[in-house]
């Protein structure tokens, strides 16, 4: 008789996104993303961080400063964009993106342009911002389905 207490696909892929977020060097917000095709195969992962080749120790990680150039915002690549750019799968058309934080409007445009058709998100803590409102408008107009991940309450523990 087979096991019946195994995790669902959504639990599995959101777990991968959450694990990927742990690679982020950001001291305030760690975001992870996992892109999956319609055959339940992972085609890419990403997390928020500095572009390849930038020494994390030489870049700002602050949320606010006198100059925007002394903050992380002009430099950090978001998890969704990293996952899209990291893919060597070819077309992402029809894929699902699992992400720990609802995408900003800039990532929404990349998600739409890449052909991703479904976004499953864990948190939408910036729902009241114009950027996330714009994302919702874009997703709605372009037929990208969004759904909030519903935790099952299961604990998955990794010991490293």
Automatic annotation (TrEMBL):
Sections of the chain in a coiled coil: none
One Pfam assignment: dCMP_cyt_deam_1
Record domain CMP/dCMP-type deaminase: where: 8-138
Catalytic residue list: 80
InterPro entries tied to this protein: APOBEC/CMP_deaminase_Zn-bd, CMP_dCMP_dom, Cytidine_deaminase-like, dCMP_deaminase, dCMP_deaminase-rel, Deoxycytidylate_deaminase_dom
Gene Ontology CC entries for this record: cytoplasm
Keywords (A to Z) from UniProt: Hydrolase, Metal-binding, Nucleotide biosynthesis, Zinc
SUPFAM superfamilies noted in UniProt: Cytidine deaminase-like
Cofactor: Zn(2+)
Residues binding Zn(2+): 78, 104, 107
BP GO terms, sorted: nucleotide biosynthetic process; pyrimidine nucleotide metabolic process
Gene Ontology MF terms: dCMP deaminase activity; zinc ion binding
Family, as annotated: Belongs to the cytidine and deoxycytidylate deaminase family.
Name this protein carries in UniProt: dCMP deaminase
């Amino acid at each position: 008789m087979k096991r019946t207490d195994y995790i669902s696909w959504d639990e599995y892929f959101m777990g991968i996104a959450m694990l990927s977020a742990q690679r982020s060097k950001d001291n305030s917000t760690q975001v992870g993303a996992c892109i999956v095709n319609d055959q339940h195969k992972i085609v890419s992962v990403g997390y928020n961080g500095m572009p390849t080749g930038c020494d994390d120790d030489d870049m700002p990680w602050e949320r606010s400063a006198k100059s925007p150039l002394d903050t992380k915002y002009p430099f950090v690549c978001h998890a969704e964009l990293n996952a899209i750019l990291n893919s060597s799968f070819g077309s992402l058309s029809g894929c699902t993106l699992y992400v720990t934080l609802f995408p900003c409007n800039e990532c929404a445009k990349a998600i739409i342009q890449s052909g991703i058709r479904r976004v499953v998100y864990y948190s939408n803590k910036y729902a009241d911002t114009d950027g996330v409102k714009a994302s919702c408008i874009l997703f709605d107009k372009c037929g990208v389905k969004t759904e909030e991940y519903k935790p099952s309450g299961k604990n998955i523990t990794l010991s490293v």
